[in-house]
């Protein structure tokens, strides 16, 4: 029987080549995250969220009305509007084009995400409108808008509490979102524009603090993806969302309005709260 030469038989397997993204991040590393609270004095709640170069201004306005179909039911409503400044992107986008299908789809996503963690019976027949305006876009604007709107909504509830308008705890949980994608065969977290435009697969994931999904938007841009790759992307998104939730909680967790909910560890055994990334935090 012919045997392989000794040198081939004992040759060690090649070590995996470390993957570094174009901005120096590792595949599982998110962009620097920062929240600023109270940036608009007139709004009941407001926050500026920075995710890398993406910046979104989120304001929460409370109005003493509800949609006609909710009148007399003792419930409030939470909704959102989304737009981009004309020079949020590399080329000017006319304001007249900001009300198209993309903006409608994103603002509905933001509203659904916030209502998923809100008790609509807790603040009477009032409507809270979250205006999410993209100041600068480097991909991930919808996920950043959800993350910032969560902080602005919380602060609007603080305002209502101070006015004596809350009937009970208004928040059942927190909510956060992040993007993931497959780039050159490697699952990556929190894509910027250069990565998003080149990704073979990209996905936006919205989850609550308890680890329940609100929405998963995934697309095979230039190729299909397998069940195993889907599981990898969802696990990676869970990692990133834990970090966003931890940053939110550091900022607003002392108000008494945000329930203590801990996301269970995933099947990969990751801890419920991962170490803070450089640049994370709030003001």
Strand/helix succession: HEEEEHEHEEHEEHE
Name of the top-level CATH class: Alpha Beta
Helix content: 25-40%
Overall shape: globular
Overall pLDDT? 89
- Count of individual domains: 1
CATH level-4 homologous superfamily: GHMP Kinase, N-terminal domain
What fold name stands as the CATH topology? Ribosomal Protein S5, domain 2
Spans with pLDDT under 50 lasting ≥5 residues?
268-279
The second-level CATH architecture is 2-Layer Sandwich
Largest sheet: 6 strands, mixed
Number of DSSP-assigned strands: 10
Mind telling me the C-alpha Rg? Answer: 21 Å
What is the number of helical segments per DSSP (H or I, 4+ residues)?
A: 5
The portion of residues forming beta strands comes to: 25-35%
Q: Which structural class best describes the helix and strand composition?
A: alpha+beta
Distance between the termini: 72 Å
Strand arrangement across the biggest beta sheet? 4-5-3-2-1-10
């Amino acid at each position: 029987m012919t045997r392989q030469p000794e040198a081939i038989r004992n040759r060690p397997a090649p070590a995996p080549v470390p993957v570094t993204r174009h901005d120096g991040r590792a595949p599982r590393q998110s962009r620097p995250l920062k929240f600023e609270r109270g940036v608009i004095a007139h709004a009941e709640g407001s926050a500026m969220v920075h995710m890398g170069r993406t910046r979104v201004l989120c304001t929460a306005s409370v109005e003493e009305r509800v949609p006609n179909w909710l009148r007399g039911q003792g419930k409030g409503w939470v909704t959102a509007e989304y737009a981009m400044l004309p020079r949020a992107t590399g080329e000017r986008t006319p304001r007249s084009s900001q009300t198209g299908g993309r903006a409608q789809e994103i603002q509905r996503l933001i509203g659904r995400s916030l209502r998923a963690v809100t008790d609509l019976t807790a603040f009477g027949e009032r409507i809270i409108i979250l205006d999410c305006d993209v100041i600068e876009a480097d991909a991930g604007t919808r996920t950043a808008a959800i993350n910032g709107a969560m902080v602005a909504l919380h602060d609007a509830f603080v305002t209502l509490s101070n006015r004596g308008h809350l009937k009970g705890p208004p928040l059942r949980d927190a909510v956060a979102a992040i993007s993931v994608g497959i780039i050159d065969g490697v699952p990556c977290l929190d894509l910027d524009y250069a990565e998003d435009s080149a990704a073979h697969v990209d996905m936006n994931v919205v989850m609550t603090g308890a680890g329940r999904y609100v929405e998963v938007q995934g697309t095979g841009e230039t190729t299909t993806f397998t069940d195993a790759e889907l599981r990898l992307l969802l696990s990676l998104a869970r990692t990133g969302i834990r970090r966003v939730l931890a940053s939110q909680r550091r900022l607003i967790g002392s108000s008494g309005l945000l329930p203590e909910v801990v996301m269970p560890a995933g099947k990969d055994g990751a801890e419920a709260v991962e170490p803070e990334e450089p640049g994370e935090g709030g003001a």
